């Protein structure tokens, strides 16, 4: 059975950024390189651009030469938008009207329309994500949600399959989605063998939540900085909102309001993020058992650590350590820095109450 034709739809063909090249290359590597021993025939790939450059046009950056124009994507069985320029994703620049119109016509004619990373902005602009769940790189999801409120943006997953409209998170998550398409078209065996040739996992556990940095600066409110620094040094203690408000010299209500205004989070949500960030650091840099990491991060028991980790990070602590742990640190048996090591009998001597 022929898996059909695939069109890689490019907005930008003569001044491509590194990420645009990377995600375009992912799609080309999966669908453009024949694999006759796995499936014959393979996909019929075409690379389509809004305006194919002439052979004499000077290239300002990375460029793609193709004989296929934007109309050639309308007749494809699958259309993939690998990404859009930063000017579109980050600064709200307009997409060419003929590009979004071609996406709409391709979908209306029955094509499967796919985006990788910031390509979701093109699908959203074409109206193909309205009322649908969609993924994009977690660094762009807030902008995507703000610009297109009819889209249900999910920043925790590697990709979303909504039938004939599919979206992925950024960078290598695009490869996860492309392999998912091969799995859907040609079966698990072909997809798994192709993944082995690309030296990647056929199916990665968890979502992109495991890659999100929870420890970034959270506020420009200097008056809150001392109490937040203090709380971050005492995560192994049973902290409460009243404790933090008292340390800040504020009423509980005022502290709640000020922290919410500065970070967009409630105090308990902020505290949970800090506990998870510390647990992640310990999993990455030490060989401590999960029971001790639960205590040192303030998440309590190993079961409570696993529950929060699976819910908010998307993988178990063990899976996270296998992906991000430092082998040298584990070999040395490295111990964590404060707040883990406190004098006997101190506040850190007993497990903290779990945050809920």
Strand content: 5-15%
Shape: globular
Mean pLDDT: 80
Q: Rounded to an integer, what's the Rg over CA atoms?
A: 24 Å
Secondary-structure element pattern, one letter each: EHEEEHHEHEHEEEHHHHHHHHHH
Stretches with pLDDT under 50, minimum 5 residues: 52-57, 212-219, 327-356
For the sheet with most strands, the description reads: 7 strands, mixed
- Terminal Cα span: 52 Å
Number of strands: 9
Description:
This protein is an alpha/beta fold. Helix content is 42%, strand content 9%. It contains 15 helices and nine strands. Strand 1 (5-10), helix 1 (18-31) and strand 2 (44-49) form a beta-alpha-beta unit. The longest helix has 19 residues, at 267-285.
Key descriptive features of the protein:
globular; 356 residues; two-stranded parallel sheet; disordered C terminus; 9 strands; 7-stranded mixed β-sheet; single chain; alpha/beta
